[in-house]
Amino acid sequence: MLFKLLIVFLLPSDCPGLPFYNGFYYGNVMNDRSYRNGNGEGFFNGVKLVVETPEDPLFTHRGANVTLPCRYHYEPALTSSRPVRIKWWKLGENGAPEQDVLVAIGLRHRSFGEFRGRVHLLQEKERDVSLVIHDLRLQDYGRYRCEVIDGLEDESGVVELELRGVVFPYQPPRGRYRLHFHEAQQACEQQDAVVASFEQLFRAWEEGLDWCNAGWLLDGSVQYPITRPRQPCGGRGLAPGIRSYGERRQRRDRYDVFCFSSVKGRVYYLEHPEKMTLAEAEEACQKDGAHIAKVGQLFAAWKFYGLDRCDAGWLADGSVRYPVTRPRPNCGSLDPGVRSFGFPDKESRKYGVYCYLQS
Ligand SMILES: *[C@@H]1O[C@H](CO)[C@@H](O)[C@H](O)[C@H]1NC(C)=O
């Protein structure tokens, strides 16, 4: 589902000028994308081992169970089966280290780290060594290598897994440009999200994200997406695009952050007779058997469930927002988006609350 939407926020300082930018424009990134998952082939004794994985990325969402297809065969075909060892690992990208996922010999397998207990081989048919991952997490997107080891031969293929999600810029209550890189990671986690990758920000920009404050990305670079060039955001002369400050010093420089979240569970505006303080709002959600929603959860509900509500409500971080998919008079700007009132006085009784129910 592609949204051609502009995300517009009502913040006190509407699009403050940026101190500098390098005008980098990533217009051709999508064309340059290469998937290194050519099918692997290897020879032994005149027999070729061939590993097959899909060329196209798989798209799925958080919480899903997904199967990463991988099969192998021999050419010419062998009548007897041969013992092989299978290894799945996740490629290190975007500053993340390579991770072992699973190793299998026959029916025995072992999984590692974050994947322990969440993965197994499908093994529905002979020579099908597809990997099943349960209860996908936000960090699970990326490229996975399926390696088949037959004696001295080993061949592999790559499967790319992408999560459907939403990218949103985040500023903490203390204001603009306050986060070192590791604080940015914590800030996203507290919103039930992770720091967005460049690819995720790029996709969000294609879908219309326009934001005039620079934020950290997963690879340690600092960038911002512009769909409508204008004077305070790098000038009118530049083409729309993602503007980059390049890599910044992670412990010294402070920016906002772009977070990535994906849908899991349900967000709703609590029908409640009175407006509440932040503490009362938290309590009201708990009484309703839920929790006060986090920013990432509200964005995901807006994007994936079309949550549309013209009532401003508290969120867990103390911000007040409301999601609009069908813009209309007296409901903020004319673009769809999650509107923000920033971080009002926690004691003020002017707002309702958005609650989150885990599925
Ligand atoms: C994933 O698989 C588990 C175990 O088979 C099952 O209990 C769960 O409902 C599945 N989840 C989804 C989203 O299909």
TrEMBL record:
Span of domain Link: 166-261, 265-357
Return one Gene Ontology term, BP aspect. skeletal system development
Annotated GO molecular function terms are:
hyaluronic acid binding
SMART domains linked to this entry:
IG, IGv, LINK
Gene3D superfamilies xrefs: Immunoglobulins, Mannose-Binding Protein A, subunit A
Q: Name one Pfam family in it.
A: Xlink
Stated family? Belongs to the HAPLN family.
Function noted in UniProt:
May function in hyaluronic acid binding.
Quote the PANTHER family the UniProt record gives: AGGRECAN/VERSICAN PROTEOGLYCAN (PTHR22804), HYALURONAN AND PROTEOGLYCAN LINK PROTEIN 3 (PTHR22804:SF40)
- The protein depicted here goes by the name Hyaluronan and proteoglycan link protein 3
Q: What is the lineage of its organism?
A: Eukaryota, Metazoa, Chordata, Craniata, Vertebrata
